[in-house]
Write a structure and sequence with these properties.
Pfam families: C12orf66_like. By secondary structure, the protein is an alpha+beta fold. It has 2 domains: 175 residues, Hyaluronidase domain-like; 122 residues, 2-Layer Sandwich (Beta-Lactamase), CATH 3.30.450. 57% of the residues lie in helices and 11% in strands. It has 12 helices and 6 strands. The protein has a 6-stranded antiparallel sheet, sandwiched between helices. Strand 5 and strand 6 form a beta hairpin. Helix 2 runs antiparallel to helix 3, helix 3 packs parallel to helix 5 and helix 4 packs antiparallel against helix 5. The longest helix is centred in the first third of the chain and has 53 residues. The chain is elongated and about 90 Å long.
Length: 347
């Protein structure tokens, strides 16, 4: 009887010891992965600070590569089943960030299809996040992984709001750069509905400036140096022989937007070529043509895109209406405002 009782107690002690060892091993593994996660999270925060310092200026290839590296390394660092929810949250965050950066780069390169796919990928996740964020409005919730730059008076996720603003800015740029593609892919009412939903309607505001200030024309010119094929409006099926119309071009430049469509573009291309150094310094350059009796004003809007205003007769380079228009459009086209929201300590 005594020996039987001793055996039972010994078995119980062995089971408890094994259970304790397993628990300690599990806790140790989770703590180690959480430590790796914290270190990786610091890398991610450093990336946001880098985006702030770079003002998200094109090209964005380096930032895209760094996000891709983080996205690939995270699953291995937090692979335990207990941390799957954390892994899913971070993976979605980096997926959206990468899609937004890639979309920004492809819009700058006038890559219609690539930018559309990336924006759709980002939008899909942001739509999924929105109800989660809105459900916590008015509560004391402060998301542990989505609280970057969160205002103390706004419980909603600061990072979600920042990404939503980033997306809306890209959407506005997309409708401006690819206006002609959008205008040929749907009805006038559908296009009007699309433009009414963007944060800043560049086309409508530009047309308003043209009418109000007696400008004649607005052009967007794409630098096509190094491109094997001329830029195409919209998407082209590689298996079809009938390709969509190409933008009007001459040598190293192509006109991708012409509002209203009528202009001899050769003086515009000459102006860009002759004043390239000044354009890279973010200056507004101009050229008055005696032959056409027009004045052409130009500024660099993006890495490869120039915005041109055509005026009848002679216009002074210090014309306040011109300066106001260029400043307004360029400030809304560039991603500097979005980058500044990432300033450390920003509230």
């Amino acid at each position: 009887m005594f020996l039987s009782t001793e055996k039972q107690e010994l078995k119980i002690n062995l089971v408890e010891t094994e259970s304790n060892v397993e628990q300690e091993s599990l806790i140790s593994a989770i703590c180690l992965q959480l430590s790796d996660f914290c270190a990786a999270r610091l890398e991610c925060l450093s990336l946001y600070i880098q985006m702030y310092k770079s003002t998200l200026s094109s090209p964005l290839h380096t930032l895209c590569s760094e996000v891709e590296v983080l996205l690939e390394s995270y699953p291995a660092k937090i692979s335990h089943d207990c941390l799957k929810r954390i892994q899913d949250c971070v993976t979605e965050e980096l997926t959206v960030l990468l899609a937004l950066l890639q979309a920004g780069q492809k819009i700058s390169e006038w890559n219609y299809t690539g930018a559309l796919y990336d924006m759709d990928e980002a939008h899909e996740v942001l739509v999924r996040w929105k109800p989660l964020v809105m459900n916590h409005q008015g509560s004391t919730f402060r998301g542990s992984f989505f609280s970057f730059g969160e205002k103390s008076s706004t419980p909603a996720s600061g990072l979600y709001l920042w990404m939503e603003k980033f997306f809306q800015t890209l959407k506005s740029r997309f409708t401006f750069y690819f206006y002609e593609a959008l205008s040929t892919s749907g009805s006038a009412d559908e296009l009007k509905q699309i433009l009414s939903r963007v944060k800043y309607d560049f086309v409508t505001k530009s047309m308003s400036h043209i009418k109000r200030n007696d400008f004649q024309q607005l052009l967007l010119v794409l630098d096509t140096k190094g491109n094997d094929m001329p830029p195409q409006v919209g998407y082209s099926f590689p298996t079809l022989s009938d390709s969509p119309p190409t933008a009007s071009s001459a040598g190293d430049y192509s006109v991708v937007l012409n509002l209203p469509p009528a202009c001899n573009v050769q003086p515009v291309f000459s102006l860009i070529n002759d004043k390239m150094d000044e354009l890279k310094q973010e200056k507004i350059v101009y050229y008055s043509s005696v032959e056409t009796s027009k004045t052409y004003f130009c500024a660099q809007a993006d890495q490869k895109i120039f915005i041109v205003l055509v005026c009848g007769g002679y216009r002074n380079e210090k014309d306040s209406n011109l300066i106001v228009y260029f400043n307004e459009v360029l400030n809304n086209l560039k991603l500097k405002k979005i980058a500044l929201l990432l300033k450390p300590g920003n509230r």
